[in-house]
Each structure stands twice: as C-alpha cells, then as structure tokens.
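[retry 2/3] YTH domain-containing protein: previous attempt timed out, resubmitting with same input.
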Amino acid sequence: MFNTRNDASAHANDGNAPTAPTHPVLDELKGKNNYNPTDFDLTAPSARFFVIKSYSEDDIHRSIKYEIWCSTEHGNKRLDQAYREREGNGAIFLFFSVNGSGHFCGMAQMVSHVDYNANSSVWSQDKWKGQFKVQNVYIYCIYTCI
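[retry 2/3] YTH domain-containing protein: success.
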C-alpha cells in the first residue's frame, strides 16, 4: 500500500538521483520511532480505516511531533465511536492528507479514545477541541507536505 522508499533509493546512485530534502525534527523522530517499517502487516483483520483531511500542513507535522490528533467535533465523535467499538478487537488506522494536496502524507494508528476535555495549543487554529493519541506508522511524502 505504501512505497516506503524515497525517490533517491529507487534510482541507481549515478550522482543524478534525486534526494529528498531533510527536516531536522522529522529526521530525529524517524530515527527514534522507526517510522516506515518494511514489515508492517497491513492485512489488519477487523481494522477500520479513515481518511483524515487537514486544513494545515503544519498540523500534520505537529501531529507527528506530539503524537496527538484532533478533528472536528463531528469527526471526533465518529472516530471515538469507532475506537470504542474496536477497542481490543481491531485497530483504527488514519490516512492523513492535506486538503488540496492530492496525495497522502502518512498513516497512523489511533491508540486512545478522544479526550473531549483536553485542549492543546499546538494546532494552527484554536478552534479544535479534544484530542486523542496516535502512533505514526508511515510518514510518506511528508517533505512535500510540510
């Protein structure tokens, strides 16, 4: 489902291969958290999958850094219900995309229910209420998203 190789690894090293730009925070997190595993089981019996559309590229980056996410009120309710229905019986996977980008830039697993009382000051807008924890699995094309 995800090609975990960057463009540079898909070409012979002839000196003309494209290289992905680096971002120090993401490089550190990728090294520490083992993102983009080559052996991740995507068959995931009983899992549910959701597409998360973000208004802000910065919010995707902050989600990766702080391992949290917050959706709209309606989105939070749907995700929380799905998480509680699957708790212990299947995972909830989130595919992230920035509005208008035309591609996905990551996949994470939802690892907690929505805490409707929690607020975070990390988001680009203060209108988002509540939050839940995520465990990032794939960070793909993130350098073109940020």
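[retry 2/3] YTH domain-containing protein: Strands lie at 48-54, 68-69, 92-98, 104-110, 132-139.
[retry 2/3] clearing retry counter.
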